[in-house]
Amino acid sequence: TFAVLSIMVGGVTERLAPDSNFLIANGTNLTAGQVDVQARDLYRVQVAAATTVLGGLIQVVLGLVRFGFVGTYLSEPLVRAYTTAAAAHAVVAQLKYIFGVSPKRFSGPLSLVYTLVDVCSLLTKTHLPTLVVSAVSMTFLISAKELNSFLSPKLPVPIPVELITIVAATLISSYTQLSSNLTISVVGEIPSGLSPPSLPNVHVFGEVVGDAFALAIVGYAISISLGKTFALKHGYKVDSNQELVALGLSNAVGGFFQCYSVCSSMSRSLIQESTGGKTQMAGIVSAVIVLVTILKLGPLFQELPKAVLAAIVFVNLKGMFKQYSDIPQLWRSNKIDLAVWLVTWVATLLFNLDLGLAASIVFALLTVIFRTQLPTYSVLGQIPGTDLYEDIETHRGVREIPGITIFRSSSTVYFANADLYLEALKEKSGLDISKMIIYKRREEAKQRRRERRAERRAQRQAKREKRAQRAMQAALPETVLSVEEEEEAVSRWNDPSSNEGAAPGENGGGNGTVFVIPDSARHADEQGRWEYLKGGAPDCASLGSVSELQDEGSSSEDTLSRDLERVSLGSLGKWTWDVHSIVLDLSTANFIDTVAIKTLRSIFRDFDEISVDVYMAGCQALRFSFASSPASPVDNWPETGVAVKSKKLPERPTSSSTGRCFVIARAKVVEHLEVGGFFTESVTKRHLFVSVHDAVLYCQNHRGAATMPSYEEHDEIQRSTAL
Description:
Blueprint: H1 3-16, E1 23-26, E2 29-35, H2 37-64, H3 76-99, H4 111-121, H5 128-151, H6 161-176, H7 178-181, H8 205-234, H9 240-255, H10 266-274, H11 280-297, H12 306-316, H13 318-321, H14 326-333, H15 335-373, E3 377-382, E4 389-391, E5 404-409, H16 418-429, H17 433-475, H18 483-494, E6 513-516, E7 531-534, H19 546-550, H20 552-570, E8 581-585, H21 594-609, E9 613-617, E10 636-637, E11 642-643, H22 667-675, H23 692-702, H24 711-722
Parallel strand pairs: 5-8, 8-9
Antiparallel strand pairs: 1-2, 3-4, 3-5, 6-7, 10-11
């Protein structure tokens, strides 16, 4: 077992079977301070066995449902820091045997700190004979191990230093009576034989289910961490699900024999590894020796000092303490892994192995999220003479394609970095799209306001003319004038001196002369004539041809287009830009979520408003085959074997399409795009290309073309790429 598991099981037994529940009753009174130790220990054994059986069943179930996948989230820095912190827990648990003191037992978060503080406060009460035995044992073990390492090339088998130490310490303690003469704590009575199997107390399952789950997880974490440590050292692989099932069966079966939770023992594993054990035969030999000891040899070790066992644990944890050298190495190589190492170590020390493991895994996953949220964005250039494209900032000799910006992110695009992806694209392309669109929207709003004001003025003018016409029709009969009479009337109306003697109401203030446009002349292809009526005067601005009035709307639209172009370009300080196409490299994407799909849509929309073509490219291993007509179905994706439902392709985009997108990505990404409703009538699966190079070639050959590539052109590009 492991020291931390022992502490956790002890905490459960003390919580459910405290001494206060087993005080000896003397009549109607409880004898002060007297506890029925036999009854208490019997119930505590039942609690420990029930917790062990339940924890074992949980481990078996987790192994069968393949819960071992969580082991994939235990990175090497996390495992090494976790085992290092677990070694610190083991060391602190042995301090009371090294110094011969009796600290209080603590459990829960910060229990290590509380225990260490209590041990330090008891150092003044250190039992000197016990400390001497510990120091002598450590000195002998360290010296013998160094000698063993020095002579290992010449020795057929390593020297069993630990076994020699235990036998020698037992003999010396037995013959010198260290326990009675110097009050040195020894192992004491070791019961011989195996207890008969019995059913666990199922009534306590409900009270210990949480503790059993914690024991199952901590035991698995310790075992898989040690397994990965030795696997990396000796070059083999650990099956995490098999470890779960093995631990679960060991605990479930052992619980029927009054065992408590077991896992890989750090000290015994290190001892076996340091003495040369490499195969399962070493485990069999060890198990047989333990069995023989339990059945027959137990009483022989009753006089073994506990300080010697603590010294053996101390010395064999030296390999775990060497892992502190990871800190300077990770500082030089990868500071994020260093952060994972330090957080795991601190969390495991402070919150114990169960909560510390959970906090460590959460932090490790957060580092992955942060790294994908803040990836590296780069602009790619072509290696001359090849179809390879690399970062122009980190690779020498690459050539940027004139007029084309190839943009790539080092991670997939998803909800956490979609906005950053869009901003980085705008920055790398050198186009301040937001500013341009804002100015464009502002000018459109201004134009709409001008049009509404002009419409209101025209309505008011029309009302005045109608009122004047009705008044003149009521006063005089309608008279049609010739052209000369119209000109004479207009000049007379505009010349105030010619109307000085006119009666009131005859010069615009009253019922003066009015020009109206007859309905028969209101056509766009003929010049309108004005009819002369005696009455109100028309507005001179309304005089003119009918065609001029009808052309006013189109003229204002042309003016609007020129104003928008002038504003959007002038706001950037230049009239044109060099970029006419953008290629998005999605080779790093392995999935696309709904937020990323919306971001891609906004990219198409924004760049389309400034007439910049957008292309998307990606996985070089993917091939697509397309039918020869728009109505033909796309049946499969030949290179990957991913079946696609047969469906009709939409019609080819019209000549007014400007923002074009050609997508090439993994089949799973394309499936996500399809399910997310990314493809529309203007963006279909006909836009899928094989590589960045294909997108660049098409962009160079078809820049300025208003339509999408024909099926013949697309198939030709695919065939040339395949060749």
